[in-house]
Amino acid sequence: MPVELRHVRCFLSVARHLHFARAAEELGIAPPALTKQIQEAERLLGVRLFHRTKRSVALTAAGEAYLGEAVSALDHLARGAERAALAERGELGRIVIGYVGSAVYSGVLQATVRGFRARYPQVEIGIEEIVMRDAGALLIEGRIDIAYVRPPVPQPEGVETRTVHRDAFIVALPADSPLAASEAIAPAQLRDQSFVVPEQESGTLEVARRGRFTANIVARPGTLAAVLAHVSLGGDVAIVPRSLARCVTVPDVEYREIAGKAVPSEVAMAYRRFERAPAVRAYLDFAASQA
């Protein structure tokens, strides 16, 4: 039988007091029971831990050597218990957050992650850009824990979304376009334009519906940065989130409002419906409190 935690605690108490009666009182056991624990520990270790006489108790050389390791072992166990409690409360762990580029432009991702890190400094957060159509599969496979996306997106069984930022779509167009002379552009004015479409095409399709035309989509480069690069080369327009205009300036690209009722855009947080990880649940609760 190996030395058990009870043996270590009894040894440390006697080593601290160098007195069996006082150590027994501290431990809340009878002195004979304490003597039995120490004798059992010595038998299991195969060494004598204390020199004992009727008047004194002193550590042996073996006891001195064992003392430091025993203290470290108990400290390590105490830290382990503390970390387990932190993890159970969601204050320790790791979260992987996936995001589409436009979520960064809105600022909601940064604000939530910064606030969460300040409240839960021992939770490690990994960040990675994802392709929006892959978000659901990445969540189900456990490769990410949370995804910041722009709805609508494919939503497999077991995945839910929650809106965390509301925005509106605007037009990005070449600076030399005749349409740039207008402060706001009516959907019908875009009838003859060619469109570059980002990952989220809903804004483009809604503008075309309101203008009663079918959008002439000439490119789907993916990220908003790539979309703006296309627009800057001239000839094409794009329907992009308004938040983009507040933080991204590209030569030869102008932004204009869409006339009439705003074309809504959102950033949503996607997550597993039955999330078990306490740290992830803590993040979801924190994000909800910031909404």
Query: What CATH architecture of the largest domain would you give?
Result: 3-Layer(aba) Sandwich
Multimeric status of the protein: single chain
- Tell me, what's the shape? rod-shaped
Task: Compute the number of structural domains.
Answer: 3
Estimate the mean pLDDT confidence.
89
List segments where confidence is low: pLDDT < 50 over at least 5 consecutive residues: none
Q: Please estimate the helix content.
A: 40-55%
Within the CATH hierarchy, at the fold level, what is the topology of the largest domain? D-Maltodextrin-Binding Protein, domain 2
Q: Tell me the span between the first and last alpha carbons.
A: 56 Å
Q: Nearest-angstrom radius of gyration?
A: 33 Å
Note the beta-strand portion.
25-35%
Number of helices: 11
In sequence order, what are the helices and strands, one letter per element? HHHEEHEHHEHEEEEHEHEHEEH
Q: Label the structural class.
A: alpha/beta
Give the biggest beta sheet. 10 strands, mixed
| Fourth-level CATH superfamily of the largest domain | Periplasmic binding protein-like II
> Number of DSSP strands?
12
Which class of the largest domain in CATH terms?
Alpha Beta
Protein name: LysR family transcriptional regulator
Pfam families: HTH_1 (PF00126), LysR_substrate (PF03466)
GO cellular component, one term: protein-DNA complex
Family: Belongs to the LysR transcriptional regulatory family.
